[in-house]
Amino acid sequence: MKTAILLLLLLPLALSAEDKAAPSKEKLAVSTETWTGKKLPAYPSGQPEISILKITIPPGQRLPMHKHPVINAGVVLRGELTVTTDKGEVLHVKAGQPIVEVVNEWHYGANHGTEPVELIVFYAGGKGIPITIPQK
């Protein structure tokens, strides 16, 4: 009887231990090329500087034409991003998908959907080097 009572008391502990998920990781991207297939350039010399931006694009809006002189990559958290280069290359990236961005190529991101696009972008640059250059 004591064993049965002990088992009944310990059962909730055992069940809650099973409910807890173990940490996990998922590799989203590994690449030596941008999404257009061009080789990534060498990192700049000098003091490295990492920038991390959260970018939100409202529905029906787009970013201005711009380029990045440094390597950058990101993950779309919400919505669907459409990236278009000045050469007409187009990439659609949905929530949860990564992007290895083009370097030194004119492009823009747009939201053609009905919900905001949210993405996190990591820039591997250097101190004093801009991460984005707008087209004039």
What integer is the average pLDDT? Answer: 91
Quote the distance from N terminus to C terminus: 83 Å
| Overall geometric form | globular
> Sheet bearing the most strands, described?
4 strands, antiparallel
The assigned structural class equals mainly beta
The helix fraction, in percent, is 10-25%
Radius of gyration: 22 Å
Helix and strand run:
HEEEEEEEEE
Strand content: 35-45%
Number of strands: 9
Uncertain residue segments? none
The main sheet orders its strands as: 1-8-3-6
The DSSP helix count reads 1
In brief, what are we looking at here?
The chain has 136 residues and is mainly β.
Task: Walk me through the structure.
- The protein is mainly β and 136 residues long.
- 13% of the residues lie in helices and 37% in strands.
- It has 1 helix and 9 strands.
- A 4-stranded antiparallel β-sheet has the order 1-8-3-6, with no helix packed on it.
- β4 (80-85) and β5 (90-94) form a beta hairpin.
- The longest helix has 18 residues, at 2-19.
- The chain is globular and about 60 Å long.
Properties at a glance:
136 residues; mainly beta; four-stranded antiparallel sheet; three-stranded antiparallel sheet; 1 helix; 13% helix; globular
